[in-house]
Amino acid sequence: MAFTGPTPPRKTTIYLIGDSTIAQKTRQTFPETGWGMPLGTFFDTTVVVANHAQNGRSTRTFLAENRWQPIAAALQPGDYVLVQFGHNDESEAHPDRYTSPADYRRNLLKFVQETRARKAYPVIITPVTRRKFKDGRQQETHVAYSAATAELARAERVPLIDLDKLSRELLQQFGEENSRLLFLQLAPGDHPNYPYGRQDNTHFSELGARKMAQLVVSEIKAQQLLGLADHLAQPTAKNAVPPTPAGKDAQPTTP
What we know:
- The chain is of the alpha/beta class.
- It has a single domain (12-240), classed as SGNH hydrolase (Rossmann fold), CATH 3.40.50.1110.
- It has helices at residues 59-64, 69-74, 101-117, 143-156, 163-174, 206-223, 237-240; strands at 12-18, 47-51, 80-84, 121-125, 133-134, 137-138, 160-161, 183-186, 198-204.
- α3 (101-117) packs parallel to α4.
């Protein structure tokens, strides 16, 4: 009789649903990076990040295209669903995706209720800011939809990550010019995917995506969100040692 070892423990899954600011990008769109792409590197091996965010989707179209229903069906007790929409919901110029604030709130509520029905944990996130400076100050770019997100979180007692506010503060720290580094800002010839350049104040560079993911992780840790903070990766002994400054007294490191 063949010996079978113990069944490995089931990993916790963090599902990400949202729009292009989170989504997994293709090689053809690199260096555009969604903040969901580096998120998994901040967690230990007991966690799997399943990024189901899609470019161009609002809460309404995400539901209408049957993107949410398979996720809800797959949820297991103890899983997490991180929800960040708003960019496309508020796009009145695109009626194919526009969703009124009231309908946006109802759709968020559906995500929350159906997540909880599966004994999983919803976390609501306000839409990450667009880069928009005026007189040296980063402007608020999602007023109505961030307010609707926060109101729902309060009413339903759902953990809230105010990424709108946090990302605006980050851009202000970088400043009007340096904050370009966080976004897909390319001059002609910088990258073969964008031979004519790109001036994009919505989608992130690799650096910007990592910085936004760090903001999310910092709030998970600060709020001790539903035990999720217990799954954050810990520094290894090697990486925890500060690097030795270069100079005559510096010792060579063992490869």
